[in-house]
């Protein structure tokens, strides 16, 4: 059954209590964590400290919510902080186990200077395998997002074909391959179907070079076609609204955008 969540990137001013209350009141099924009120490293959130985590999980239970995914800043191109990315992935896997989240999100995210696609795929795959080795057997998967210079399904596939860990999958952000990679929804799905475990949804108007983010349903992404291809392929996971309010303060407030997402998506499920 397809379920709806939102990432907390879309409500950077909300407190944890507001996040839980509004998610339940608006009709969401889950919450994807990408920081709260400017604290982006999840282990540092007050809600996950030893004196608070039990209460946090009780709040989620009472609201009828679960965590759909835990999002990190881990990437494989920033070599100066590569070991910190691996450390963040480990601590987030441990946190995911404690709170019942099935996925931990990572980025590719860029080519190194002069690097070929073959070499980049090998480098990123090796990093994912290292993260996957830690996650394996814990009920948590490491997910590589279609993002940055690896935004297309074709490039992500080239990486995933070199990954050997069964604890690694793909997070399909439907906006990036379509607008940046120039792929249809059907083409991206065909390329990535064996690995897709989680989906980010957003909408925008115009081509990538000048696109403007907007409420889901007000843009030109063929979101209904995406949901149709996912359902036809047997996908039964999350469709998580990634409203990038933290990075783009000019877009709609979550009080407007989050209910609009529910209104646009529920009829498609």
Brief digest:
It contains nine helices and ten strands.
Number of strands: 10
User: For the terminal residues, how far apart are their CA atoms?
Assistant: 8 Å
Instruction: Determine the CATH superfamily.
Output: Divalent-metal-dependent TIM barrel enzymes
Q: What oligomerization state is this entry in?
A: single chain
| CATH C-level | Alpha Beta
Question: How can the largest sheet be summarized?
Answer: 8 strands, parallel, barrel
**Residue share in helix:** 25-40%
N to C succession of SSEs = EHEHEHEHEHEHHEEEHEH
Rg, rounded, reads: 18 Å
Low-confidence spans: none
Based on helices, strands and strand pairing, what is the structural class?
A: alpha/beta
Read across the widest sheet, the strand sequence of neighbours is 1-2-3-4-5-6-7-10
Number of domains: 1
Residue-averaged pLDDT: 98
CATH topology: TIM Barrel
**β-sheet strand percentage:** 15-25%
Number of discrete helical segments: 9
How would you sum up the global shape?
Answer: globular
Topology diagram in text:
Layout: E1 3-7, H1 16-26, E2 30-33, H2 53-63, E3 66-71, H3 82-99, E4 103-106, H4 117-135, E5 141-145, H5 153-160, E6 168-173, H6 175-179, H7 185-192, E7 196-201, E8 203-205, E9 212-214, H8 223-232, E10 238-241, H9 254-265
Parallel strand pairs: 1-2, 1-10, 2-3, 3-4, 4-5, 5-6, 6-7, 7-10
Antiparallel strand pairs: 8-9
Describe the structure in your own words:
- By secondary structure, the chain is of the alpha/beta class.
- It has one domain (3-268): Divalent-metal-dependent TIM barrel enzymes (TIM Barrel), CATH 3.20.20.150.
- Helix content is 38%, strand content 17%.
- It is built from nine helices and ten strands.
- The strands form two sheets. The protein has an eight-stranded parallel β-barrel, surrounded by five helices. Strands 8-9 form a two-stranded antiparallel ribbon.
- α3 (82-99) crosses α4, α4 packs across α5 (153-160) and α5 (153-160) packs parallel to α7.
- The longest helix has 19 residues, at 117-135.
- The mean pLDDT is 98.
């Amino acid at each position: 059954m397809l379920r709806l969540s939102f990432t907390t990137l879309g409500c950077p001013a909300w407190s944890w209590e507001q996040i839980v209350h509004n998610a339940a009141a608006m009709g969401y099924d889950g919450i994807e964590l990408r920081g709260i009120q400017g604290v982006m490293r999840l282990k540092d959130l007050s809600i996950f400290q030893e004196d608070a985590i039990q209460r946090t999980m009780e709040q989620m239970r009472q609201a009828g919510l679960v965590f759909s995914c835990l999002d990190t800043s881990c990437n494989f191109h920033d070599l100066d902080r590569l070991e910190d990315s691996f450390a963040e992935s480990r601590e987030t896997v441990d946190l995911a186990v404690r709170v019942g989240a099935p996925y931990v999100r990572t980025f590719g995210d860029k080519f190194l200077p002069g690097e070929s696609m073959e070499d980049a795929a090998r480098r990123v795959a090796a990093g994912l395998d290292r993260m996957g080795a830690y996650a394996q057997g814990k009920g948590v998967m490491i997910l590589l997002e279609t993002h940055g210079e690896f935004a297309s399904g074709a490039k992500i596939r080239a990486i995933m074909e070199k990954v050997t860990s069964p604890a690694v999958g793909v997070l399909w952000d439907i906006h990036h391959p379509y607008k940046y990679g120039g792929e249809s929804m059907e083409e991206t799905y065909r390329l990535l179907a064996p690995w897709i475990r989680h989906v980010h949804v957003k909408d925008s108007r115009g081509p990538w070079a000048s696109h403007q983010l907007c409420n889901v349903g007000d843009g030109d992404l063929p979101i209904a076609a995406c949901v149709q291809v996912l359902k036809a392929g047997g996908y039964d996971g999350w469709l998580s609204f990634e409203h990038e309010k933290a990075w783009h303060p000019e877009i709609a407030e979550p009080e407007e955008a989050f209910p609009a997402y529910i209104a646009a998506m529920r009829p498609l499920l």
